[in-house]
Specification:
The protein is of the alpha+beta class. The protein is built from three helices and five strands; from the N terminus they run αβββααββ. The longest helix has 17 residues. The mean pLDDT is 93.
């Protein structure tokens, strides 16, 4: 997928989150382990959000691999330590297709 398509999907995901009461804290946080697409805050919980897009839901969600999630977990740990955070946090995914946006909340790996 091109960077432009990924950016467009992330922008749609940010709009979705904002509409649903989330505050966007940061986009595209990088560490040596990987990247977190969106970091958002709602109801005193920090959300680390992985955005995947595709023509169909199934093809997009299949791109959330164990290796990708390992990188997200390690990168989130860097973010928490770097910012000395002591708050509840969860890992979410947003699946963006031309027809829909679906959020999978509090996923575990």
């Amino acid at each position: 997928m091109s960077r432009a398509k990924g950016d467009a999907a992330e922008s749609r995901a940010c709009e979705y989150l904002s509409t649903n009461g989330y505050t966007i804290v940061q986009r595209n946080f990088y560490s040596r382990f990987g990247e977190i697409d969106i970091i958002a805050f709602k109801d005193e919980v920090l959300h680390f959000v992985e955005v995947k897009s595709g023509e169909e839901y199934e093809s997009a969600v299949q791109n959330i691999t164990p290796q990708k999630m390992s990188r997200v977990l390690r990168t989130a740990d860097v973010y928490i330590k770097k910012n000395a955070l002591e708050c509840a946090y969860v890992y979410d995914a947003i699946i963006v297709t031309p027809a829909s946006i679906d959020m999978i909340e509090n996923i575990t790996f």
